[in-house]
Amino acid sequence: MRKHFGVHHACHCDFFIMVMIHELYNLREQYVLKDTSEEPRENRGREMSVSLLMLLLMPLICYASPVRNVSLRCLEDTNQFLSDLNAVEPKAYAIMMYDSLGKLGSNILGGNTDRLGSYTECLSAKVPSGKFQGQYCKLQVQQEGFDYSIGICVPDSCHNEDITTLAILDIFKFKTISFVSPFPSLFTLNSTVSVVSVARCAKGLFSIDAFAAICLFVSIVFIVLPITGTVYAAAVRWEVKFDESPSDNLPSANYGSTSSNEKDKSESKGDIRWNHYKMNSVLPVVSDDVCYTKKTFLGALDSTLKCFSLQKNLPTIWTVKSSQGVCSALNGIRVLSLVWIISGHTSQMAAWQNLDNVLEWKARVLKNPIYVYSRSGPFYLGVDTFFLISGWLSSRSLLNMVHHSEKGITLEVTLKYLCNRLARLQPLHMYSICLLVGLYSVIPWGSVWEISKFHLDNCRRVWWSNLFLLNNFISVTESCNGWTWYLANDFQFYLTTPLLIFLYARSKCGLIILGTTLFLASFTVTALLSSFFRLPVASPSDMREMSTVMYFTEYYTKPYCRYGPFLVGVLLELFMYHQQAQILRNKVQASLGWLCAMLAMLAVVSLAYTIEDSVNSYSPAAVIYQALHRTLWAAAIGWIIFACQEGYGGLANWVLSWDIWTLLAKISYACYLVHPILIILYNGLQETLMHYSNINMLYLFFGHCLMTFITGLALTVLVEKPFEGLKQSLTCQFHRKALL
């Protein structure tokens, strides 16, 4: 009790002294205003007395309350700022600091509650003496059940705790107007009391620690390596052309080329340089083992640099021919699904913190099927299309490996299959983490830094869960690069493909039984989770906060709830792989299949907006829909792939087979990884809130798509393709040693 009383008494003492000093500020200004009256000397004397009293009270602040520790430097600078602001002729820097303050705006009913102010103007304000300058901070304020933030400009000598204390004591005032003025009672159920909970200042939030430095180094290395490899490849090519040119001024019929006999007898340039070095070396002769080691090292360096050269990687991107035996419409489906996901993220990520009419956005978009493009379906059906394609390709890849294996599907084949998948996913995946951490650590963020800070801190903490592809189970709500839960699911699905292929080779009946069991298990678990947590169907970002959290942590990111589309893809490829004859006999069968597929897709989209899924009346239809709709969507897309492969795609096959899709499909993986990084980067650099409208979102979407494709192309050429080349080079060397 005594301890509680001491703290309570100290807080009141602190408050009393701070208020007294502030009232003395106002009293002194009143005498300054009267300085032109008939008794200026008397007023000046009183002003000096007030100033002396303030000077005597100032040191007491540091000892008034041990729990309200405000630095003396902060108090002095705040005193000077408020004095210069409330003077008869306010100083220019003080006016700038006050002008950058976040103020009450319009459209409060539409969700415009945050008052950001001007970040740049605050940082540009400097006191003439150079003692301090403005720093931008945000006050988190609570009033009548809702939270909002207010941007405030304070001296840079103050820390978060200092600003919180001073704001709670309501020290920041211009005349009698508080910097933290509450909303009028008209909008807050007659409550005009606001409570400051915490202050967060932008200064020092994004520091470069050891982890960020490593990520920056890795990010830069994969820019330097391609440049080095490109220069090296160009130099080698120039040297080859120079060596092939005629010498001794003798005419030659084979100018600029080499005869076939000479080509057969010629050595590689690396060997020529190595032999030349050995013959002309003046160093002591070393053993053959050392020479072989050096030669091997030079050969590996030569191969590595060439793998990173643009001369090798760019042509693989520009080739627009589809792989033999692969459905040409597959690339179009993949790219359009990616664009659909980018559209959803453009809208969703802007609504997290950047809209000044977020309530209007929720009312217009979340429950209206016209805006299905803005949410990538009822909720990101494009991801289920990715799972379908992944299942189709995984089955095809393993079947091809089994076909070239003399012993069929073995442990060696299975391990090689899984290692190939890891080599495909992880290099670019981990590089995207380094890119986010490195880039976000050095970017000069604006007044909306919270989302980028959230992702940066998460990657510092749990990056290892991405390395082991467990980020869909570990720290889901605070995961690193949260959108990469898809990669964890994808690899976990790949683990089941060998078992399905094994049963396919041994017993078709066993495959049917296992496939049916897996479908039913996934449907049952999803239905139970939906019923227990009452998961929303079309708009998981609605007002049910707990249901929304459960939607992402217990359903959306879990492999046992998302396995259906992948299994559809695996079974579809198993059905198509050994079919030599035409399966669809006539147009009637094809038309019937197209009709069923279109009706299924229409039902998946439309039912999401008509089924009752509120907390108080969660219908059985919502449970059934949640369990089946993603697999049903994947089956409809699977029919499109099958019909196009059979020659009954019509207009859809013509559009989906355009050559441009082949180019974009080759960079689609990099685009998927990088597009949220770019969207968060753009949103975080804003100093003011954006206004949601259809035309604004459309232009924003096109801009994000353009930047995503440019960056995705760069990452594919700089990181993904070089690692593919290194993997092939290592595989060739391994086989060569095995033959020897």
Overview of this protein structure:
With 740 residues, the protein is mainly alpha-helical. The chain folds into two domains: 72-201, no CATH class; 328-737, no CATH class. It is 66% helix and 4% strand. The protein is built from 28 helices and five strands. It has helices spanning 2-33, 40-57, 60-64, 72-85, 92-99, 119-124, 160-168, 210-244, 260-265, 269-280, 288-307, 310-318, 329-353, 358-365, 376-403, 411-442, 450-467, 485-494, 497-506, 508-533, 545-556, 559-577, 587-607, 620-646, 650-656, 659-666, 668-684, 694-739, and strands spanning 134-143, 146-155, 173-174, 177-178, 195-201. It has a three-stranded antiparallel sheet with strand order 2-1-5. Strand 1 (134-143) and strand 2 form a beta hairpin. Helix 16 runs parallel beside helix 27 (668-684). The longest helix is centred in the C-terminal third of the chain and has 46 residues, at 694-739. It is globular, with a radius of gyration of 34 Å. The protein starts with a helix and ends with a helix. It holds the Pfam family Acyl_transf_3. Residues 71-192 form the Nose resistant-to-fluoxetine protein N-terminal domain. This is Caspase recruitment domain-containing protein 8-like. Residues 247-260 have a biased composition (Polar residues). InterPro entries: Acyl_transf_3_dom, Nose-resist-to-fluoxetine_N, O2_lipid_transport_reg.
> Helix count?
28
Mean pLDDT: 83
Class by alpha and beta content: mainly alpha
Poorly predicted runs are 1-16, 32-41, 247-292
Secondary structure: number of strands: 5
- What summary fits the major beta sheet? 3 strands, antiparallel
Number of domains: 2
Radius of gyration: 34 Å
C-alpha geometry: globular
Widest beta sheet: strand line-up: 2-1-5
N-C termini distance: 84 Å
Beta-strand residue percentage: under 5%
The level of helicity is 55-70%
